[in-house]
Amino acid sequence: MNPIFADIPTTIFETMSRLAIQHQAINLGQGFPDDPGPEDVRRAAAEAVLTGWNQYPPMMGLPELRQAVAAHYRRFHALDLDWEREVMITSGATEALAGSLLALIEPGDEVVLFQPMYDAYLPLVKRAGGVPKFVTLRPPHWRIDEAALKAAFSPKTKAVIFNNPLNPTATVFPREDLELLGRYLEKHNAIAICDEVWEHVLFDDLRHEPLIGLPGLRERCVKIGSAGKIFSLTGWKVGFVCAAPAIMKVLAKAHQFITFTTPPNLQTAVAYGLGKTDDYFLGMRRDLQAARDRFAAGLTQAGLTVLPSRATYFLNIDLSPLANNIDDAAWCTRLVEEAKVAAIPVSAFYAADHVRSVARFCFAKSTDKLDGAVARIADFVKHG
Questions:
Q1: Distances (CA, A) of 108 to 27, 133, 276, 292
Q2: Where do runs of H (alpha helix) occur along 168-302?
Q3: Against a cut of 0.85, is the pTM above it?
Q4: Are 74 and 172 in contact (CB under 8 A)?
Q5: CA–CA separation, 183 vs 220, rounded Å?
Q6: Do 22 and 64 reside in the same domain of the chain?
Q7: How many domains does the chain have?
Q8: CATH number of the domain encompassing residue 311
Q9: H or E stretch including 226?
Q10: Is the peptide bond before 139 cis (omega within 30 degrees of 0)?
């Protein structure tokens, strides 16, 4: 067996979900919404599977969806993309990440990773033969430190995986941090694989700024988006990849030999959805922001220190005021066993130099579920 996968321990997500079932807990660890997604988009998929094409679609994706992606990013991010040469559809963002790494790095190339990080990054980098180099981000602001960036980059740096907005911290990197990273990409002739799946799930009137749109970075970025996050349809696994033609040519070859294509009815429905009016996108953010605010207020009233959540489905709490040297994994285990609420310890998103005092909750849940969780957590904190 390949040790990269064979030796991976049980993930924290599987562990906490198992404990949630065992203790009949409210599961706020799972990162998907209770909302079923927009009915018109789901109906478009159903109609397409009945009346549309169900054989292999083009390897790069249906032209109508690739055109819709280009138009969508022109509309929201002022990007001028050639849909024929710079846009590709994948079976989710994780496939896009895997394909990008297989296409862009060779064994021994170094890849810079910002931690805390999505759990797929490290095994995918290793399986592609890359050597991970970590930049550690710390609460409460999770900003990029130039000294750490300088230490991570070297003449062997080939790529960077950059998640913005960032899961699990629920932060949005400011322009200053984007420009800093851009300077290091140019200095070291590296490519940024930009995981931007949360680009529409932003709050407080923030607007997403894609790294590929910054001056001088068009030829140094792979932009990855996700219909699952945009439409709260996480099971659909429809991803978008945008890159300059010279990069896309190689990315397409990797995609060809991984999944080759993505269900055509879902592509048709996503093409329709990307053209929805601003009311949908603003309404989605408004509803999630209201859930965030309600949950944050409840946790604050319970005596917990809530960290800012500017994007994603997630909200974090700083556990360090509760006790010296508190361990987030132990706290989350007690929470699910005793209070019957499941959360995720953020230390699980680090590979080294762990921060062990932050717990993550998913607030993209029903009001009843959030209120019930707050009541249980408040009692746990009071008596814990």
A1: 40, 12, 44, 42
A2: 175-188, 227-230, 245-256, 264-274, 278-301
A3: yes
A4: no
A5: 11
A6: no
A7: 2
A8: 3.90.1150.10
A9: strand 221-226
A10: no
